[in-house]
Every structure is written in C-alpha cells, then in structure tokens.
Amino acid sequence: MTLLIAGLILFLGAHSIRICADGWRSRQIARFGATAWKIGYSAVSLIGLGLIILGFGQARQAPVLLWTPPAGMPHLTALLVLLAFILIAAAYVPRNHIKARLHHPMLLGVQAWALGHLLANGELADIILFASFLVWALLDLKAARRRDRDQETRYAAGALPGTMFSLVAGVLIWLGFLVKLHGVLIGVPVLG
C-alpha cells in the first residue's frame, strides 16, 4: 500500500500544482523555461504513475475488503466509464459542443471514471485509488473554473463534426476496454 500512496502523492501532487500554487508554477516556468518544466513535470508524473501501478498490483495480492458492492454496480460503472471516455475524447477533439459547453471535459471524465469504480469496488486499495482521483478532479475543476472566471476565458464554439468525432471515439475506446483492453492492461476482464 505504501507504493500506491507514494505514487498517488507524486502523480496527483504534480497535477495539483495549478490548484495550490499556480503563481509558483508560473515563476518556475519563467525561470527554467517551458521545456524544462514539462520535462520535470512529466518525469515526476511518470514515476508517480509507475508507483501507482506497482502499488495497486501489490495491494491486489492481499486485498482488504471493506464492503461488497451491490450486484448492479458493474453495469452502472460501465455506463459511467462510457460517459468518461466520451468526455475525455472531447477534451482533445477541437471544436466540439461538449468542450464548448462544459469547458473541462477531461476533469468531468475523470470524475465519472472514479465514481463508477468506487461504486463497483469495495477493497481498500480501490477506495484509496479511486477516491484520490475523484477528490483531485473535483478540486482541479473548481480551480480551473476559477481561473477561467479570473482570466475571462472564452472557449471556441462547437461544431457537429467535432462533437460526432468525440462521441464515436469515446464509444470505440469504451468498447475496446469493455471487450479486451481492461483485462489486458488492468488484469481484470470486464466481460467473462
């Protein structure tokens, strides 16, 4: 569990700098340059992600069950993860109505993903992992909306092709995870 928690601190800590210390972040970028900042940020994030993967794998070897999810929760989780993949796709597809309306679909997607997994998993490691991501995404969304208000950020209008691409990409990725990738990458098959 120690590796999981250390990984979460590194990964989510790096991703929380804009929440807690946006001015400090700007000063470091000005001091060292954007490229050096991105390299350091990426290195810390990758180390954190690696520790999360190792720590979660270790924790699953000695599970601590805190509660047993009701039978229907995996179905609800599948729907929330579908929503998450559509929102995450919309974060990267230019000129779509989802991003134009919601402004931060990535953070909303992480929230849907984490909530879905919290509902369907009752082991301690699951709760630590998914609750951490849920709390981080809620705090980051609040900070991002505050920055948008302060900077009077305007988002590009959506267009049908971008919206359709976001929807199709999200559904295809979701189907890939549902049918095969979740089992291959996470070690827990969704179907079967």
Automatic annotation (TrEMBL):
Protein keywords: Membrane, Transmembrane, Transmembrane helix
Membrane-topology annotation of the record: Multi-pass membrane protein
Subcellular location: Membrane
InterPro entries recorded: NnrU_dom
Ranges for domain NnrU: 3-189
Pfam families the UniProt entry points to: NnrU
Membrane-spanning residues: 40-59, 71-93, 159-179
UniProt-recorded name of the protein: NnrU family protein
